[in-house]
Amino acid sequence: MDWNSFWASVGQFFADRGGDLLAILGILVGAAIIRWILHFVVKRVVTQIVTGIKKTQRVDDTQSLQASPLAAVRVVQRTRTIGSVLNNVITWTIIVIALIMVLDTLGVSITALVASAGVIAAGLAFGAQNIVKDVLNGLFMVIEDQLGVGDVVDVGPATGVVEAVGIRITQVRDVNGTLWFVRNGEILRVGNMSQGWARVIIDLAVPYETDVEEVEAKLLKTAGELASSPKWRSTVLEKPEIWGLESISAEALVIRLVIKTRTTAKDEVARELRMRIKKSLDDMGVQLPALNSIVLSGYEGAASVRGSKPPRTKPVSVVENKAPRRAPRTPRKPEAE
């Protein structure tokens, strides 16, 4: 191998295309700088909005917003989600523009490339439709505020806290710490447990011979004390309710107690309420039966949505079909022999 001719050809290449290489390097550096600037602007705007809300509510961290109006929490989560999506859109847009500029600098005809890409795209259309579906579904989820960063959601494949929402992938961290990467196109329904309010439901099984009215009064009193205590007053939205007997069997009676709470405090309120109920039942001397033979039913029923306040319906008139009355039969007298 003639090294002199090799290095001579390398030098000739840089002499001929050195300007193009410097232009390509400038395009890449410029794209990186523009991306950094735009990401910095998005981050700055998101930080200012979140900080402004925290100052308005006079809190130091986002978790403390649970005591503030629910709209403030949604603005924080929605702002962070839109910021995450904007960062993804900016990155991919800059990459596509930089790639087109690099190809133009190398002398590649963009028109011919687009024509060739059209032929290739026809063959890849079936496979690319999943990507398009992911992107469109992700944009609609953000626009419609179906979920946001920090929300506790059930998206089917995974249930947990949303850590990031991209244009194609949503990251969900479950209770075990596993980070799930869920394609937006595969999300057919979103169960958001962080919007609006939540409901603590306690189903208590007591022995059949227990005085139901006495137990219900004790449960309601215990839940009312929790709701009125200074520590839990800001997390409970409405007065506790007794929905009555949910199921009945020879072994036990199941009584349902519910409390409407803020979404961020549902689990804490439920744990505290169970502890207080346990102490109240100990004071009453009520021994709970074994649950291995008791089926708690009614939790998934549609009728439970309205609870103890069912919808009002108009009375339906009932027309009785009265059959003609028959004359009483007279007993036949025995004939004389």
UniProtKB/TrEMBL annotation:
SUPFAM superfamilies of this UniProt entry? Answer: Mechanosensitive channel protein MscS (YggB), C-terminal domain (SSF82689), Mechanosensitive channel protein MscS (YggB), transmembrane region (SSF82861), Sm-like ribonucleoproteins (SSF50182)
Q: Per its UniProt entry, which superkingdom is the organism in?
A: Bacteria
- Transmembrane segments in this chain: where? 20-38, 85-103, 109-128
Q: Name the InterPro entries on file.
A: LSM_dom_sf (IPR010920), MS_channel_1st (IPR049142), MscS_beta-dom_sf (IPR023408), MscS_channel_2nd (IPR006685), MscS_channel_C_sf (IPR011066), MscS_channel_TM-2 (IPR011014), YbiO_bact (IPR045276)
Where located? Answer: Cell membrane
Q: What Pfam families has UniProt attached to this entry?
A: MS_channel_1st (PF21088), MS_channel_2nd (PF00924)
Species per Swiss-Prot/TrEMBL record: Compostimonas suwonensis
Q: Name one GO molecular function term.
A: mechanosensitive monoatomic ion channel activity
Ranges where the record places region Disordered:
303-337
UniProtKB keywords: Cell membrane, Membrane, Transmembrane, Transmembrane helix
Boundaries of every Mechanosensitive ion channel MscS domain copy: 130-194
Q: Which residues form the signal peptide?
A: none
| Domain Mechanosensitive ion channel transmembrane helices 2/3 stretches | 89-129
The entry sums up its family as follows: Belongs to the MscS (TC 1.A.23) family.
Q: Which PANTHER family match?
A: MODERATE CONDUCTANCE MECHANOSENSITIVE CHANNEL YBIO
- GO cellular component terms? plasma membrane
Q: Does the keyword Oxidoreductase apply?
A: no
- Note the topology in the membrane: Multi-pass membrane protein
Recorded protein name is Small conductance mechanosensitive channel
